[in-house]
Design brief:
Two copies of one chain form a homodimer. In chain A, a hairpin with a 4-residue loop joins strand 4 and strand 5. In chain A, helix 11 crosses helix 12. By secondary structure, chain A is of the alpha+beta class. The interface between A and B is large, with 45 and 45 residues. Strand 7 of chain A pairs antiparallel with strand 7 of chain B.
């Protein structure tokens, strides 16, 4: 326990001593509609180059779940100019690293390289935005890779299977109820044509955000972006980004998932929760506090009541991430202590929530959480890659540069009354799913 | 109680005396791909004329739920040749009746008229298959009609709201989890363009089944169908009919729905169940028996145990309908007697199911159910409209004429062992949703 504690302490001291470093952010849009964000940070001669597409798993056509993630893999199959594997090879040969990721709301590709290699990264990324070549063999091979990835990450992990079933029960209509990696049976049917159709529909400069962060000047980035991304034609047929929204959730849901591989049973409850919206981030900010107050570490409400006072829980947690295009979830976890049943653990959770709603926020705890949130923000801004990620993700989810800039201030303005109001709106059982992960019979496979 | 009992008795006597009337069915396909089924019945000079489209609510684009049903309404707005309301007026003026209905798997339009008016019906129906005219005003007016229909049928009926939430929890991925009438918020956004796009995509002779039943000769129907439907061009871009299928359902789900308007609480459990498939109707036949054995009337297993023996229930029921393109549900209902809690009612249900799985089928009960199923089939075949409906629905759901013809025999071949095997496969809690409808606080409206 010493190391993290010490580190946190250093953080607080730094925070108390140093003013928050302002990010030096410039943004503009190319004539073809591609948004560009430049974050200057000249402390090291490196640059992070990211292209974020405003498309993710929640934009997939029904019955083709996993295609966004599949395409992310296939983007490394190369073009005529830069054949398969060459992006990663070139990046590595230039001493850099690269990666890609897919979420519900975006798909992103990034490289971290020496600052003088930025142009090469743009050349690579602009080329594969338009010129991806895919053989039938590539598709079959990569589909097997992804099925194996699903095996390892989901089928072999009861907690992941449990999470999939819970999400599906949480969302009655919205595609956030479908796993990002895709349902296995649907992954198995994904075709080259599915991938190319998704690529042609969504991979276009007017659906992309370029983020360049590090030892660069905005004018130089603008010139390079114009040279490499500027010539790409925008898509004239970009779909309007609306997903099926949730109907009123009027019945509390519960589910039980049993698996012989479960080592530690637990209770998890999620509530449908609002997300950050452009110009309206206040509720999300209050919920960010609420999650920290209830479940953020050993001084939180749940830890104090359930782990230390009543000793009914081994571990408690609360989580919320407002970074989403549509309604997201707020979650609570209780891992019962030996001899405590899941029902007792859940009852203890409900009792703690009821007390919290009745008693309100302890000011000392609130101040500590505010300090933690401020410190986390300062660390994030101090890391060029994290900072680039923040802007890219936010813009890809429909937020604006000013929303990202304003977020620390919105967080700073949150009051205990805001938190309690948000909590009262949130904790409506009709919009919740309570899941029990249990050790038990093997799940029957129905396919 | 006297009347239905007497009627049932007459049925059994009739059945014992008369052989089943064979249906005189002819089927063929027009050059443009339109399937035609003719059922001759010359006992009365009437004809039933039906057009079934192989499209329903489960084929809707995501986020546009209700468009199939909305279009069904809009089909009465008329064409240049037959303006708004004229179909129904002409039918009525000719002494007939007409109607239309939308299910998950089909949308159908039918008229019942004097046999010599058949050609006029074809003229009307062929015309509106291609030439529907819709004004913006029609769309706005009819959308309000449908929102009001939803108010009356769903929003004002807690059992219907409960059913919607249960279905959404039953299906993790398949559109059967979305209400046929549509989510209110999505109905409110349906546009003229949505309706016309759905119409142009799916309303075409190669996506339709014509059923003509009554006092007609196949050759005459063929000549008329060629004359009126024959000239319609088939759609070259008919989508392949595949919906997102269910992933493995591996976590038992439960939900509670409370509403102050609930007069009588009850427990309802549904299990995911297989449907009738072309050439493979045996399991569906066994499940048809199972539903009758468990919940069909006062001599059923659940009625005997829960209503008469333990007196814990006021009413019990089991339901199953194998008429679906994709996996359907098998349901059980227990309405507890006064003083019996929903938990006790559910426990009694589970105990009855466990006994049934242990004890097997009582032969006397099985024979009675077989007789009832035979009798129901004979009545259905004896009614020209019911018979036409059977063929139309089956063909629109992907079954073939021979599947409909063979269904009574498949039902007749079911053995007690088949029923028990089907029951053992069916009653897997991981694929079930158990819902409690309770009297309680008003559901919060989240929109």
């Amino acid at each position: 326990m010493m190391l993290p504690r010490a580190a946190a302490l250093v953080g607080l001291i730094l925070f108390a001593v140093l003013p928050a470093r302002a990010e030096n952010v410039t943004s503009f849009t190319l004539d073809n509609g591609m948004d560009v964000v430049v974050i200057e940070d000249h402390r090291a001669p490196v640059v992070v180059h990211m292209v974020w597409y405003r498309v993710g798993a929640a934009d997939e056509p029904p019955g083709h779940s996993g295609i966004a993630h599949f395409l992310e893999h296939l983007m490394f199959k190369g073009t005529d100019k830069f054949p398969a594997g060459s992006v990663s090879e070139i990046v590595e040969a230039n001493g850099g690293s690269d990666n890609a990721f897919t979420s519900y709301d975006y798909t992103a590709y990034f490289q971290r390289v020496a600052a003088d290699r930025l142009e090469l990264m743009m050349e690579l990324e602009a080329d594969r935005m338009n010129n991806l070549t895919l053989s039938e063999k590539d598709v079959v091979t990569e589909r097997n890779v992804i099925l194996e990835e699903r095996n390892q990450r989901v089928e072999n992990d009861p907690a992941a299977l449990f999470a999939e079933q819970r999400s599906a029960a949480q969302y009655l209509n919205h595609p956030y109820g479908i796993p990002i990696i895709g349902w296995r049976s649907e992954i198995a049917e994904l075709s080259r044509e599915d991938a190319l159709s998704f690529y042609r529909t969504y991979y276009a400069p007017n659906n992309a955000v370029l983020v360049v962060a590090g030892d660069v000047k905005p004018d130089a980035v603008r010139a390079l972006a114009r040279k490499h991304y500027g010539p790409l034609a925008p898509s004239a047929a970009l779909p309007v980004r609306t997903r099926p929204q949730e109907p009123p959730q009027s019945a509390e849901r519960r589910l039980r998932f049993s698996d012989p591989r479960v080592a530690q049973p637990y209770v998890m409850r999620t509530y449908l929760a609002p997300e950050r919206d452009p110009g309206a981030q206040e509720t999300a900010a209050a919920l960010t506090y609420l999650a920290e107050l209830l479940g953020g570490g050993t001084t939180s409400v749940l830890a104090q009541k359930l782990q230390f006072d009543s000793k009914q829980a081994l571990y408690t947690s609360a989580f919320y991430d407002g970074n989403a295009l549509d309604d997201t979830t707020f979650g609570l976890v209780v891992v019962p202590a030996p001899g405590v049943s899941l029902q007792q653990a859940e009852d203890a959770l409900d009792s703690a929530l009821a007390d919290f709603l009745k008693d309100g926020v302890n000011m000392e705890r609130f101040d500590r959480v505010r300090t933690q949130i401020r410190a986390a923000d300062i660390y994030a801004r101090d890391n060029v890659q994290t900072s680039a990620h923040r802007y890219g993700a936010a813009l890809a989810m429909g937020l604006r540069v000013e929303d990202v800039r304003g977020w620390p201030e919105v967080l700073d303005r949150v009051t205990p009354a805001d938190v309690m109001a948000a909590a009262r709106d949130l904790f409506e059982r009709r919009r919740s799913v309570t899941g029990w992960l249990m050790k038990g019979d093997a799940p029957e496979v129905t396919q």
